[in-house]
Amino acid sequence: MSEEGKIAFFTPEIAVDNSLYTYSGGLGVFAGGFLIAACKMGLPVVGVTLLPRQGYYDQYLNENQKMGVRYVNRTYEGILEPTGVKFKIPLSGSEVWIEVLKLPAGRFGTTDIYFLDCDIEENDALSRSNTLQLYGGSRDSGANIERKIAQSFILGRGGVRALELLNIPVELYHINESHAAFAALELLERELQLTADLETATEVVRSQVVFTTHTPVRAGNPEYGTYSDGIPMVLKMGSFGKEITSEVLRRVGGEPFNMTASCLRLSRKANAVSQKHGDVAQKLWHWVEGASPIIAITNGTSRDFWQAESFRNANTAEDMRFAKKQGKRAMLRFIEEHTGKHLSENIFTVVWARRFAEYKRPKLLFSDMEWLKSRLSANALQVVIAGRPHPDDYAMIDVWNWLYKRSTELPNLVVLAGYDLDMSKILKAGADLWLNTPRSPDEACGTSGMSAAMNGAINMSTPDGWMPEANPENCFLFGARFAASDQDAYDAEKLRDALDQVLVMYFTPGEWSKRQLAAKLEAEMRWTSDRMVSQYQELLYKK
């Protein structure tokens, strides 16, 4: 990179502090860790994202003892600073105003981050709602395909124009997940104004863009319309000039219009987020003609953000025992304050905490209730569960409610509402075992286990995402590596076997603390955002 040019990191969500409700899960945690490491390493990066003032949603336990969803408007005075930049972009035949706010470098240990906000007085009510909620909110709050496309145009087209108005020279655009695909399309439209040749214009854009893909299932990648209406929908929403025609959109994103395919065709290089995901992504997108090569750069997590000070200074097994005892006591106090339920610091504690999604299988541990009841009742183990489903995923909300109901009936089982960054830190510092149960090969990376290991929690996981790369001496793997018949039943049986074996090891004097220390040292050496960003510099950014 030149000294003058910046790397513009476009991302739909960022998690950098609990006071900023601009994330939903692992994608935001990845982005936050990336920008913290970039700041620490002096990399010339600026972040670009949307400002959803109501965030993803607030999760709470309602009066019926079921999970509730609510949206709360938030102001960010004292956190974000006005830049004085306001501008408008064409969107669906009209114009929408965007205001640019700034999180200054260093405030939460990050580089400069620019937030795009449409909830301003210059806009009508419909336009103001475009950025109000992360990913457009829920069906109950008015989410629809048009709003999701609108958000992508505000992030992509709006982000490119915002950086120009801020006089920030950009040498490289890094598109983090395909929700920001229209940044590359904005660059293509400009090149087509200079040359009528699509191939030439595409090559110019590709020289300026790199892309990170996170979703290993095609259904999870935004794709708009059917074969009859996908291109017209994007064309109408984009309010393009004469350069972007239906044929140009078709050649860039296919029909229906696939956002990831467009990113692959308009970037010079792309990356998956674990070695296994690299293989999956190459197979998943093999049909995209003219796609950029996909390499693998395994995610990391920010030690500066996630690791408690007591674990940072733990260099012996005895240090680890002491740090974990303190972390566990703090977690149990938190649980008692929020649920009234008392757990013991002397019982083996398993934590499952992450986004509630079907492929992550939050009920896998509950496949044999008699087995689980016997362990819980005998004080052999205690289980803590937390996480947020998508507000439109009624099946997973039902699972959350089912698990909560079980927690009111069974001893040593807790389900927590209100999962956020601060709660995640508490649970990782207190967990003996960090449980991860994705159905292989659907987990791209799953970085929560990395930050858990930094806080003395040992991982138990299916061999998916980053886990096959971990030292098998420092974690516990169970279940199928690839899709198989009766996979859920097979994995559930292997999980029970693995937990029974680990229970013996946990009470073996000295053995558990040594393994905790080894897992922590491995995470500090191999699974940090600092290592990850260094690899982005070397493997993705260099031409």
UniProtKB/TrEMBL annotation:
A Gene Ontology biological process term: carbohydrate metabolic process
GO molecular function: glycogen phosphorylase activity; pyridoxal phosphate binding
Cross-referenced InterPro entries: Agluc_phsphrylas, Glyco_trans_35, Glycogen/Maltodextrin_Phosph
Gene3D superfamilies xref list: Glycogen Phosphorylase B (3.40.50.2000)
Highest taxon above the source species: Bacteria
A Pfam family recorded for this sequence: Phosphorylase
Family: Belongs to the glycogen phosphorylase family.
Protein name: Alpha-glucan phosphorylase
Species lineage: Bacteria, Candidatus Sungiibacteriota
